[in-house]
Design a protein that fits this description.
- The complex is a heterodimer of chains A (144) and B (668).
- Chain A is mainly alpha-helical.
- Chain A has one domain.
- Chain A has seven helices and two strands.
- Chain A has a two-stranded antiparallel ribbon with strand order 1-2.
- In chain B, 62% of the residues lie in helices and 13% in strands.
- In chain B, the strands form four sheets. Chain B has a six-stranded antiparallel β-sheet, with helices on one face. In chain B, strands 8-13-14-3-15-16 form a six-stranded mixed β-sheet. A two-stranded antiparallel sheet of chain B has the order 9-10.
- In chain B, strand 9 and strand 10 form a beta hairpin.
- About 1% of the residues of chain B have low confidence.
- Classes of the chains: A mainly alpha (144), B alpha/beta (668).
- The interface between A and B is medium-sized, with 33 and 31 residues.
């Protein structure tokens, strides 16, 4: 089975690679790679998407539909100092205990990319990171 | 009392940069600012010129000449065969509705016009829909917005610059424009005419004395001499009048030439400014690159903010759990203590508290109680472990929070720097384009000729002044001789007719002296009036140093700013100079007519933001309406925002291409 048509729990490399649906990957690509793009690297955009979903969903990890995914990153390069791993473990301990980390990262990532697309009303070229950050902070303020 | 003049709307067809029809409504409420934003060469000056042309039928050039119709008519409209250029202004004059229309129609629409003769101009003023006669129309406009002082309420940066030059020591030229402006405001040209009439009457009175004296043989010879002297004096006065008129014309010409020559001298300065502008833009571009790189770097850490928020939420939740668990734990500690005490009684069969052995019956009761407590003991143990776990989690979350420092503040700061620098870059780029365009207009041959003409004019003025001085002396000599002859005639014959004629002459002389003194006093009074207005306006708008008043010195009309100790401020900043020029123009405008609209084209050139804000807050209070034509580099949105409650309407000049501008309601 190739990396391109599997999902984490079913692929031989499950647990070490993070996959993403083709649609989410295409969206992710549109946040990088041009002059004035909000992110330098696709991985930066993906990390932001994961963290955005973590901020929104907290310990209730988003549901992940069983749809084919494309391998995107090796876990080692995505989370080299294991901050995401430890943060997910701290934020969603139950989900962490039940689901593989790579699958959780994918579920948060897919959700986060959806939130980013929603934020820019479907037009990634108009995505403003400063506004997205401000939203995160206003979310924090509204909870204090 | 109704305001003398309020513009209601303007409709511009094929005028200046405006192709086709553009329409705008002026604000008519207390929110009396009309903000019109446009790029350089976009059509701001065309808007101002459209108003000038509609009201007065002419638009002046920088060299004080009239702009031909051919240049006013939109070039694209001519190229596309349009035959009508038209400006229609609806206004309330003392509360009554007027419509002012001026239009120029091509006589031969099928051939390209070459001169003003190829156009027919119509001027119509309607009051309540009724067309007024041309004479009446001009009178209405001149009474409400006199053409002679129109440049003080329909003005542009050029006029400001002209007045700034009067203040700046390095550019000091003759104060002729200011003297002229004050005299215009005062209506002095009319007084000059009145003086000439008095001179003429005086001459006629002299002749009358001579005529009466001729009827007597004793005084006939004296009267003939008097006649000759009167004729010579009249000729000298006539020459003086002509020479003064020539001098005035030359002075005006010289002032225009000085303005142009001075601009040429400023061309070197301009080139320096262009270079400095380019260097500054390079530095800004580098800074922007640097901040953008910083943003890119920070964007790779943006994930920290999301995680930080998620962890903060989690921390709050854990703290709440911990608080609940700790409360329960207090009770469990007490229960655990009881459990251990009862267990000890069972094991030893002795109660340490009362120091007695416990009976079997009591031991059974205690054992059943212990059985119950053993079950909850497991719960307590689990609860304790849970508490430990929560504490562990809390420590973990705290540790993670320490690792993921949010970047929001750093990102926002860098982003604001990019915005600020980009705005500054745009402003500088617009200035650069404007300066480049100015520099490109330089024609070296024309420069040389203008300088020659200025030298020639200065020489001619010198000659004329000498001539005027000589004529004035000659007239004074004639006056003395005439005076002597009249006295001689009166001494020789006591004719009542001669006495009566002499009496008339004396009365006219007295009248003229009184008139001359009155004229000087009036001029002085108006100088003080303008000085007072200018001082008040200046103080309301200036935002720096110890600047107390504006002074226009008597006689020489030199302008200066004085501090609170009454000493002149020797080197005012360019901002202060521009504020003073603005104050002076507003003062001249206010001194010369009742309060009405002010229309300003790009007036904020060298002012800093603080001054722009102050000027912007002050001027709407000095006029029935303030029409502000500005480009984006001139006013930051934040500055404009300080008067948002006074902005009645906003328009943008949209320029599709050269000579195809249109007014569009709303901000850019």
């Amino acid at each position: 089975m190739s990396d391109n048509d599997g999902i984490e729990n079913e692929t031989p490399s499950a647990g070490v690679t993070v996959s993403l649906s083709d649609e989410a990957k295409a969206h992710l690509q549109s946040f990088t790679g041009y002059d004035g793009a909000p992110f330098k690297e696709m991985m930066d955009a993906f990390r932001f998407a994961v963290s955005l979903a973590m901020a929104h969903c907290g310990n209730e990890a988003p549901e992940l539909e069983s749809q084919p995914g494309t391998t995107l990153y090796n876990l080692g390069s995505f989370d080299s100092n294991q901050t995401f791993k430890e943060a997910i473990q701290a934020i969603a301990p139950e989900a962490y205990a039940q689901t593989s980390l790579t699958r959780l990262i994918r579920s948060y990532g897919e959700k986060g990319i959806g939130l980013m697309i929603e934020h820019c009303e479907g037009d990634p070229s108009s995505f403003a990171l400063e506004d997205a950050l401000e939203d995160i902070h206003s979310l924090a303020d509204s909870q204090t | 009392m109704s305001v003398p003049l309020i513009f209601k709307s303007i409709r511009i067809n094929n005028f200046g940069g405006y192709f086709g029809e553009s329409y705008a409504k002026f604000p008519t409420s207390e929110r009396n600012i009309m903000a019109i934003q446009g790029r350089n060469t976009g059509g701001k000056t065309s808007f101002l010129n459209a108003l000038k042309w509609c009201l007065y039928g002419e638009v002046g050039t920088r060299a004080d000449t009239e702009m031909p119709l051919l240049k006013l008519f939109n070039s694209n409209a001519i190229a596309e065969g349009e035959d009508l250029m038209r400006v229609e202004v609806e206004a309330l004059i003392k509360g009554e509705p007027f419509t002012i229309i001026r239009e120029a129609r091509r006589r031969f629409p099928n051939s390209k016009p070459n001169s003003d003769n190829d156009f027919t101009v119509n001027f119509v003023v309607k009051k309540d829909g009724q067309v007024l006669s041309e004479d009446h129309s001009n009178k209405v406009i001149n009474r409400i917005a006199p053409k002679i002082i129109s440049r003080f309420f329909l003005f542009d940066g050029e006029l400001l610059k002209e007045y700034e030059d009067l203040i700046e020591q390095r550019n000091r030229r003759s104060t002729f424009p200011l003297v002229e402006a004050i005299e215009d405001v005062l209506g002095l040209p009319a007084l000059k005419t009145a003086t000439r009439f008095l001179d003429k009457a005086l001459s006629l009175a002299d002749r009358n004395v001579s005529q009466k004296a001729q009827s007597n043989t004793q005084t006939k010879n004296l009267s003939l001499k008097l006649d000759t002297l009167n004729t010579q004096r009249d000729q000298a006065v006539e020459q003086l009048t002509e020479t003064e008129a020539k001098l005035e014309k030359l002075e005006r010409g010289k002032s225009g030439l000085e303005k142009e020559v001075n601009e040429e001298r400023e061309m070197d300065v301009l080139r320096g400014e262009i270079k400095a502008n380019e260097e500054q833009r390079e530095r800004l571009a580098k800074d922007i690159d640097q901040y953008q790189n910083q943003l890119k770097e920070l964007s790779s850490q943006a994930w920290k903010d999301g995680i930080h928020l998620a962890l903060t939420k989690r921390q709050t939740q854990i703290e709440q759990d911990l608080s609940a668990l700790s409360d329960q734990h207090e009770n469990f500690i007490v229960e655990e203590h009881d459990f251990q005490s009862l267990k000890h009684i069972i094991d030893s069969g002795h109660c340490d508290t009362c120091g007695q052995d416990v009976s079997e019956t009591h031991l059974d009761t205690i054992q059943s109680k212990i059985d119950v407590m053993i079950r909850s003991h497991e719960d307590r143990k689990a609860q304790y472990e849970s508490l430990q776990e929560k504490n562990f989690q809390a420590r973990k979350v705290r540790g993670l929070l320490g690792q993921v420092r949010p970047i929001f503040e750093r990102y926002t700061a860098a982003y604001e720097q990019v915005l600020h620098h980009s705005n500054e870059l745009t402003r500088l780029a617009e200035n650069h384009d404007r300066m480049k365009a100015e520099a490109q207009n330089e024609d070296l041959e024309a420069v040389r000729k203008r300088r020659e003409r200025l030298e020639q004019t200065t020489r001619e003025i010198g000659v004329l002044r000498d001539h005027i001085s000589s004529l004035t002396n000659t007239i004074a000599d004639h006056d003395r001789n005439i005076e002597q002859l009249v006295a001689d005639i009166n001494a020789k014959e006591g004719s009542k007719e001669v006495e009566a004629a002499t009496d008339v002459k004396r009365k006219l002389e007295t009248l003229k002296k009184v008139f001359d003194v009155g004229r000087e006093e009036l001029r002085e009074e108006m100088r003080k009036h303008v000085e007072d207005y200018a001082s008040r306006s200046y103080k309301a708008m200036i935002h720096e140093g110890d600047h107390e008043n504006v002074r226009i010195s008597p006689k020489t009309y030199e302008l200066s700013i004085v501090n609170s100790r009454g000493l002149p401020v020797t080197e005012p900043s360019s901002g202060a100079t521009q504020v003073l020029a603005l104050a002076l123009i507003v003062a001249l405008g206010k001194a010369g007519r009742p309060i009405g609209p002010i229309v300003m084209d790009s007036p904020f050139g060298r002012l800093d933001e603080a001054h722009r804000g102050r000027v912007l807050r002050y001027l709407p209070r000095q006029a029935s309406q303030l029409v502000l034509l500005y480009h984006s580099g001139e006013l930051q949105p934040a500055t404009l925002n300080t008067v948002k409650n006074r902005i009645g309407c906003a328009y943008t000049i949209q320029k599709a291409e050269e000579g195809r501008s249109k007014l569009k309601e709303g901000e850019a």
